[in-house]
Specification:
mainly alpha; about 90% helix; 8 helices; disordered C terminus
Length: about 230
């Protein structure tokens, strides 16, 4: 009897601890929901994380945390939480909501193939969701257009890369042309310098010749005057 009583006391203690833990994570979720409605998404995120720290299997906390992250533009982290909620959740409609939001994130980033799969999974769990059905049809059409245009977002990146390479090639070509022009101009500059030196030498020679002539002219009149005086 004492042993049985001891075992019962242990089970009752465990149940009481689990009950307190469950109450704690539910309270954190309620706090997070209040902050979420007030659009205070960072603080709501903190409360949902507290709930998960108390109960890591709480799918409601996973889903709500994913939504709070999504509202903060933390799309990658939001997808992780929503996938966890979708895989762990048993209720069909809640599972559908998780996959629908994953589809919205993928559609936003033009990842139409992934968005289509997420919307399909959402409709498997909630076939009456017409909004998800519309998004699925839209993504199929956008995926077809993306394929026809050569890959959509990746194709744009390739085009940007090609344009960048072309601009770099043009800059290199312009730089090469500038160097060629400089090389072509250098001989002209050298010839001009040679011409200037030649002109300078010629001017010096002319000056010397002029001075010689002036000396000769100065000497000749003196000689004539002497002859005349005689």
């Amino acid at each position: 009897m004492k042993v049985l009583r001891y075992i019962l006391m242990i089970f009752m203690g465990l149940w009481w601890c689990q009950s307190i833990s469950a109450q704690a994570d539910r309270q954190f979720i309620r706090n997070g929901n209040k902050l979420y409605r007030e659009q205070n998404y960072p603080k709501a995120e903190i409360e949902y994380r507290k709930a998960l720290s108390r109960n890591p299997r709480n799918t409601q906390a996973m889903y709500n945390l994913g939504c709070a992250l999504l509202m903060q533009q933390k799309d990658s982290a939001a997808t992780v939480q929503l996938e966890s909620a979708g895989k762990s959740e048993k209720a069909g409609k809640r599972k559908a909501m998780a996959y629908r939001n994953i589809g919205v994130i993928c559609q936003k980033h033009q990842m139409y193939g992934e968005a289509i799969e997420a919307y399909k999974e959402s409709l498997r769990n909630n076939p009456s969701d017409n909004e998800t059905r519309y998004n699925l049809a839209l993504c199929k059409r956008l995926a077809k257009n993306q394929k026809q245009n050569g890959g959509g977002k990746n194709n744009k990146n390739d085009k940007n890369k090609n344009n960048k390479d072309k601009n770099q090639d043009k800059k290199k070509q312009d730089s090469k042309q500038d160097k060629q022009q400089q090389q072509q101009q250098q001989p002209k500059d050298q010839m001009s310098k040679e011409n200037a030196e030649q002109l300078l030498n010629y001017a010096i020679q002319e000056e010397k010749a002029t001075q010689q002539r002036m000396k000769q002219q100065q000497q000749q009149p003196q000689h004539r005057r002497l002859q005349k005086d005689w």
